[in-house]
Amino acid sequence: MQRKTVTVLIVVLALAACRKWAPDDLDYLSPRAVYNQKVFSPVMGRTTLYAQIFNTDNSSTPIQFKMTNVRYKTTGEPTTDLATPVEVLVWKQAYNGEEKSIAEIDAKRVVETHPAWEIRPNSGEFILWAAADNSVLREQPDSGYLFDVEASNSGGKNVYTDLAVMPYREQPYSPYEYDPVTGLQRANYPNPSDSSVYKLIYNNPGVQNVTDDETNLALRNDSIRVLFRRKGDGSSLTFKFMDKDSMAIDPAKFNRTAWDTLVHGFNRVTTKTEVRYDVAYPIPLVRYRTRYTNGDGSQAYVKFIWDRIGFGNIRETCSIDLNFSIFRKGDWEVIFFFQHNPRFRDE
Asked: What are phi and psi of 239, to 5 degrees?
């Protein structure tokens, strides 16, 4: 009986030793693990993250990812464009919209250097950094780049070939009235077979209860054009209002506007022709709902309000509003151009 016990013990130890080196103890990398997306068309000038795009198919994690064989799509010629180092702002503390100065905002961000088009080594996610522009990467209508990705753990390696990145040209603000491929102003063509008949597309605000001062009719939103103009390399945002004769409308006429909380800006300066703020860019700084954004935090939201005594001695509240984003730092003007003058006076 003792001899049998010893024999069984030897067998158990031998099996345990074998198991230590058995393939079952290696990580598992499924041959069906796959990228759910293979073509990427980010807009240059904006930080864009492609998250949760790799299906592990129950593979062991972590998996290591590496981008290889980067080449131009048209010629197959190797290129280092995607690896071009760019300086980017990265948040180290959370933005909450309650910061009291640009210095307080800047203290939450640091400058780091990253590849223009980066693969995250532990997730396989891709990110295009905002500092990448047409001086770094080719933009559409160029066919862009192809690259491969190696995914590996101790259980093996998968290679995913012919992933593509085809960036759109920079669109420094939104809504953007220019075509992302041609750069030409977009237009409506009511008859697709006759390209000589078209109407250019402009940005228009929302309009609530505004009267045309000449016709007494409701002012339509397409009679107001919103123009974005970059005037310098600073870090400011200015709002202007122009009447149908291109004369400045005094911002004081928008007498119910909450100017101090209109945007997350500082050092407001108001004149008879404009309202200017010092701001940090981009606008909004992150996708996060604050008092300065729309409902999901994806865009800034501004509303310019005034009241007047209408017919029947009834007080009317009038307003125009706009959802927008600005991605490129600078001294920007947002100009509201009225093709028909709004009525500010009382009846």
From this structure: -110, 135
